[in-house]
Amino acid sequence: MSYSEPPPPPPQYGAPQPPAGGAPVGTSGMAIASLVLGILGILSCGCLVFSILAIVFSRISNKDIAAGTKSGAGMAKAGFILGVVGVALGIIYWIIVIVSGNVNWTTSSS
């Protein structure tokens, strides 16, 4: 071995590894819609359509969230709960409307 020769180059490595975890998953649009519809269902308790749609959208979004392709489990759960509360308030509202519509509230003083 001679000291006049340069040392050999270091071994070459492959391309750098991508960061762990891959690309971040996005938030489920159905979960966002479920939360918004749940809020609308609470605010308009006489209209059951918003609350029912909130329940349906939260169930659909849970399938995407369980598969791991989307995130937003908290929004889906909150939308489901608000949807159930909205349905309950809507039913109570319509029962009160029906019952109070059949009662004669006029008094006569003779």
TrEMBL record:
UniProt keywords, alphabetically: Membrane, Transmembrane, Transmembrane helix
Annotated region described as Disordered, given as residue ranges: 1-23
Transmembrane segments: 31-57, 78-100
Keyword presence, Transmembrane helix: yes
DUF4190 domain ranges (all copies): 30-92
Record's keyword annotation contains Transmembrane: yes
Compositional bias segments (type: Pro residues): 1-21
Source species, domain of life: Bacteria
UniProt name for this protein: DUF4190 domain-containing protein
